[in-house]
Specification:
This protein is of the alpha/beta class. It is built from eleven helices and 15 strands. The protein folds into two domains: 223 residues, Type I PLP-dependent aspartate aminotransferase-like (Major domain) (Aspartate Aminotransferase, domain 2, 3-Layer(aba) Sandwich); 120 residues, Aspartate Aminotransferase, domain 1, CATH 3.90.1150. Helices cover 40% and strands 14% of the residues. The protein has a four-stranded mixed sheet with strand order 1-10-9-6, sandwiched between helices. The longest helix is centred in the C-terminal third of the chain and has 32 residues. The two termini are 23 Å apart. The structure holds pyridoxal-5'-phosphate (PLP). Pyridoxal-5'-phosphate (PLP) binds next to helix 3 and helix 4.
Amino acid sequence: MIKFVDLNAQYDSIKHEINNAINEVLESTTFILGQQLTNFEKEFAGFCNAKYCSGLNTGTSALHLALLAKGIGKGDEVITTPNTFFATCEAISYTGAIPQFVDIDKETYNMDIEKLEKSITSKTKAIIPVHLYGQPADMKEIMEIAERHNLIVIEDACQAHGAEHHKKRVPIADIGCFSFYPAKNLGAYGEGGAVVTNDKEIDNIIRAYRDHGQIKRHVHKFIGYNYRFDEIQAAILRVKLRHLNKWIELRRKNTKIYNELLEDCDAVIPVEKEYNKHVYHLYVIRVKQRQKLIEHLNSKGVQTAIHYPTPIHLQEAYSFLGYKKGSFPIAEQYVDGILSLPMYPELKQEEIVFVVKSVKEFLK
Ligand SMILES: Cc1ncc(COP(=O)(O)O)c(C=O)c1O
């Protein structure tokens, strides 16, 4: 069996460090918003080459609070992509704002820059580019468009820890959101998320929001949330962060093997733009007859997944926005062919060879 993601393989390689870190927290009996989190926040901000990081309970909360901290609310429109995880849009909806979509780029599957400017209206307040699968959206162009129209940019970097755009690590804009869901490139052993920013004031607002709007104990400046981060997860992430650069390089090495082996068959392989460093959270190909290929791979013991089978504008929850089939033709066409193959740092060369051999058996 070749798993889609094998979290055991990673745990086995760092077991002692992780167990010691968890024990340290148990001995300290500080379980929420303690020194482990303070240290992790410093270390993760440093990893992103940014000034501030506030740890939160999920990536969804990170998006929600980033939007609130930037003043997004009822009546505003926020542009994002329909080919993302549902949470990107949910966070927009939590604030009372309305998500609007722009179709995806044919090569990168990220927001199509050519179409972005045309979708801006008088109500547009912000853009949320999503660095899908680990490849940054075209931030240079997005920032220029945002500046021309006086729009806020909040990056959904939930899949892109350590990804680079023109040699700079994300977030490129002043504010970016991360998820530490277990299968992410930097994954907790539970839930986790963070907002990374260079703006001290934004960081302060987010810290207050995550803890019931408190600016100090029992002083509630506004109505906030309980989006606090726990110390065991912070301690685990501090251990894992020390390995993250190495794990990114292993994902890139595995991608190179996949790309070379898949070159001569009827599958569209991922494109890494020359100005980006892709961190391959997911390795996604496009094929015809996807369902039959999935069944064939299943029969060979190869697990796969689809990210994501339905573009968000066609989800029932967002039917009130009035989009229809045909609204975003590229996103709609691509969802029928995309297939995520097994990808994680510890995946072995012989396993990739087996996956590709199984793909090729079918495609022939
Ligand atoms: C692109 C994207 N946005 C947002 C999220 C939400 O993160 P979380 O699951 O930590 O709330 C995820 C993670 O699943 C994601 O992949």
